[in-house]
Amino acid sequence: MGKGRSLTCDERTSISSYKECGLSNREIAKKINRSATVIDNYLKNSENYGKNYKSGGNSKLSTRQKSHILLSAARGKVNAAEIVDNLCLPVTSRRVQQILKGSQMFHWEKRQKKPALSKGHKVARLAFARKHMDWKEKWAKVIFSDEKKFNLDGPDGAQYYWHDLRKVPEISMSRNFGGGSLMTWAAFSFNGKASLRFISTKSNSEDYTKLLEDVLCNFGHQFHQNGYIFQHDNAPIHRSRHTIQWFKSNNIEVMDWPARSPDLNPMENLWGILSRAVYKNGKQFSSINELKSEILLEWLNIPKKTLQNLVSSMEQRIFELILKAGGATKY
């Protein structure tokens, strides 16, 4: 005799509820119109019910079940294993992955992280875009900068999900100062890279201006003898009176940068390129010195063409920012 129809999720929930109310297995069987044997087998090992099958066996999914898989993925924020559990499917998560890939509507990708934007943030970002919409070659004069933390065990946990290609990619909110074990500072422009520096997570305004004096001034003199515009975000030590006075004393023009706008800074993309090189093939590090050496090596290996492509993307970033009315861009 062939194997009977498996219990559905609704039936399993009903069985558990009826059992808690004190009904016998035979009474439950009558309630849901299933055999008492099925009820007995389920209650003997409810946690592992449906999991004792061989991968690649005769378990087949109905057209309805496949549709439910696609609908679950389209709702977002679930992986294949969760879809199997939520739908009580008699197959492995691998089979669900095959179905999603075969649909040609989904792609397994990293969920983008973007800061939450208020109406005020969007207004300021849009004003910034309109102010710079006519910039072309002038972007080559900008020196972009940023700080980043690197971990010994690899980059912070990435969120991946099944992306419905018919929809806008999902975004999860992120906050400043995420975890890490080694803080770095770097800057670059269309003409080249500044020396990458390792800094304290407790740096103050004096530490920051000393760093700029040691690195930025030399970089600007070497690559931008006709002047440059410096870009950094709105971190407190960047906006302090001490730092502002330092820029004035050194006659350095500073770009008025909108808050919560990492997507406008190509330095963020350069960090991503550097991070992938440092942690390629799942590499991990046993010491801070080992991690430092790898970061410095991969920083030096970044080709100038990569820098130029990133700076050249500023025109498209500004264009997209205007189209999004100040909202988050794809960058």
Describe the protein's architecture and organization.
- This protein is an alpha/beta fold.
- It has 2 domains: 52 residues, Homeodomain-like (Arc Repressor Mutant, subunit A, Orthogonal Bundle), CATH 1.10.10.60; 191 residues, 2-Layer Sandwich (Nucleotidyltransferase, domain 5).
- Helix content is 46%, strand content 13%.
- It is built from 14 helices and 10 strands.
- Strands 3, 6, 7, 8, 9 and 10 form a 6-stranded mixed beta sheet that branches. A two-stranded antiparallel ribbon has the order 1-4.
- β6 and β7 form a beta hairpin.
- The longest helix is centred in the middle third of the chain and has 19 residues.
- The radius of gyration is 28 Å and the shape is elongated.
Draw up the topology in text.
Elements: H1 9-20, H2 25-32, H3 36-44, H4 63-75, H5 80-87, H6 93-103, E1 106-110, E2 112-114, H7 119-131, E3 142-150, E4 160-164, E5 171-173, E6 182-189, E7 192-193, E8 197-199, H8 205-223, E9 229-231, H9 236-239, H10 241-249, E10 253-254, H11 266-278, H12 288-301, H13 304-312, H14 314-323
Parallel strand pairs: 2-5, 3-9, 9-10
Antiparallel strand pairs: 1-4, 3-6, 6-7, 6-8
Helix pairs in contact: 1-2, 2-3, 4-5, 4-6, 5-6, 7-14, 11-12, 11-13
